[in-house]
Design brief:
The chain is α+β, with helices and mostly antiparallel strands and about 110 residues long.
């Protein structure tokens, strides 16, 4: 396991996603929004679909999830306040280039930092 690999999952209101040229602004706006929640910050995820009941699945289908995966030895610790995690990610997102992938349903986004 690489100790410098991290995953942040953000949950925000479901809305139509912009075309490719507007995705960076969309993600930056969600990182700045008080309505966006940090659902997870850690090193890696198990397959959560193994543990999801019908009620939780309904909540998942009604939200947009933005998964950010990055390598950084100076990342915050995993018990850092969620507001600070969003602030760190907003700055990180502005500073570093990334590949942005939208799922086939145009509901969720994955961001990989190169």
């Amino acid at each position: 396991m690489n100790e410098n690999c991290h995953t942040v999952i953000l949950k925000c209101d479901l809305c139509p996603l912009p075309e490719e040229n507007g995705l960076r602004d969309f993600i930056a706006e969600r990182l700045a929004s008080e309505r966006t929640e940090v659902e997870y910050f850690g090193c890696e995820l198990d397959s959560g679909w193994d543990y999801i009941d019908e009620e939780l699945k309904t909540h998942i289908l009604k939200a947009c999830y933005i998964t950010l995966q990055f390598e950084e030895k100076n990342a915050p610790s995993y018990d850092t306040d969620k507001t600070e995690i969003k602030r760190f990610m907003a700055d990180y997102f502005k500073e570093f280039s990334s590949r942005i992938i939208v799922d086939s349903d145009r509901k969720d986004i994955e961001v990989y930092f190169d």
